[in-house]
Structure of CCD82 protein:
Amino acid sequence: GKRKRLNSSVIYDSDESEDSDILVRKVFVKRHCIMDDDESYEEQQPDKTCPTENVPTTRKQKVLAKLKELVRQSAARRSCSSVNCEDSNSEKEIEEEPLCDLPLTPSEGSETDSDSMKDFIVEEEEDDDDDDGDDNSEHKKSENQPHQKQLNTSNSELLAHYIPQLCRCDHYVHFKRIVKAFLINAIDDTFLRSLYDGTRRKKYAQDMLLSLHYLDDRFIQPRLENLICRSRWKDRYKERVDCYPNVRIILKNSENMCCQACELKRYCRFNVLLSGKLYNSKTLEVDDFMSDDKQVLKVGTVCANRTRVYHNLKHFKYKLYVDCSSIAKLDGVEDEPVKDSVERLFSHLEESGWIQKRYNDLEDYMDDADSFQDEK
């Protein structure tokens, strides 16, 4: 039917006239739609007898219609991935008709809601036997744990193979490798040189080279740099302490003078006596040039203590090699193979506690360097 819309109009009193003195109230009529067909108008009017029955069903119908539309779209996507697009379009046309004509009741609405929501929940794939699902999941977890451990160990082994510096072992293990390398070089004086130039490629030799680098780069050198950067030593004094492997610090009478280490005005009461031959820091080969040269320097108390701590760390490796060489010479066995001699000497030093004692000395020197205070 046709709908007629009335504009807002003003209704005047029927008795209105020009000569009347009575005030007339204007009445504004609200806009509303007038249906020509009374039946269609009555259909729009909600039934006053049961107002609570139709409203929930209409809302639920809308929700279910939207859910069915989403289900249809998701089914269409799955069908497009498995078959051609033409087949999927034909399936859509077939599915649309029965879905629209389904009766919707409150009792059936809950079932369709649960069924439609299943399409939007992604579940893990299960085995064919549903009864054994829990057992299988627990079994899989137990199987994955050792597999994960195996992956972690294999990764660490690969890193250690390609980047040997990442291989971690106990500090005492590094120290024992160094002692064994020094014993070999004491018998065969070309071992350390061939080790550093890359001639020896066997695993035991590479492990010894790694331990030597570990001693220099991790134990000694960082602490030496820390002692120098926190001091006021002059470069000339530092070079002298680096060159001479032997030092004696002797207490003398106090003198008010410039310290020969930092060149500051101090009460200097210590004489630092430096002596010994210059040597190569890697191969430990000795240079006989000016072998009897000595240096005597007057320093203050703080510089004397710093000299003692710095010198102990700087020349520890060389003194350890000198002691190993002396032990190898005292053994006096010349016809025995090098490997057998080294193993026998090393076992004797380890059983007697000599290696452990020298390692404890290194730890004491490092602790002294770490705890040394700044100059005042």
The radius of gyration is 49 Å. The chain has a mean pLDDT of 74. Residues 221 and 228 are 11 Å apart (CA to CA).
